[in-house]
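tokens incoming
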């Protein structure tokens, strides 16, 4: 027997889920780019970006970053296959993003707060979106 609900989500559910997946995949790419950047790759960047790559971050910060992006991407995949465990993954993702960005706000001189705040807002929105989808029976 299948768990998939017979209550079909509207088209905008799918659009938001796909856009959210793209957003989170960009986060995964940013994480992987940072984690696996070689010295040659860093040397080819503009000086301002080189300084960012040379900043030493604590291991827990890197773990929070990884949890935020990977849990978010897997949460979006869970939405697309209509599984309610997307909510748990979005909670983990938002928690990782909040931990990561609070550290940045407190310890690093960030030229613009727009992107860090946007990341947190999107994470919180995805929690609400998954809760809403569960309550309407779109995911189970």
């Amino acid at each position: 027997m299948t768990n998939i609900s017979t209550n079909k989500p509207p088209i905008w559910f799918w659009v938001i889920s796909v856009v959210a997946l793209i957003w989170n995949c960009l986060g995964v790419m940013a994480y992987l780019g940072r984690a696996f950047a070689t010295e040659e790759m860093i040397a080819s960047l503009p000086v301002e970006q080189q300084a960012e790559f040379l900043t030493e971050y604590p291991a827990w910060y890197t773990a929070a970053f990884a949890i935020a992006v990977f849990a978010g991407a897997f949460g979006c995949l869970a939405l697309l296959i209509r599984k309610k465990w997307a909510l748990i993954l979005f909670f983990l993702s938002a928690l990782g993003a909040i931990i990561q960005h609070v550290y940045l706000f407190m310890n690093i001189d960030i030229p613009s707060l727009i992107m860090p705040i946007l990341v947190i807002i999107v994470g919180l929105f995805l929690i609400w979106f998954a809760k809403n989808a569960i309550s309407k029976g779109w995911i189970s």
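note: Residues 11-135 form one domain.
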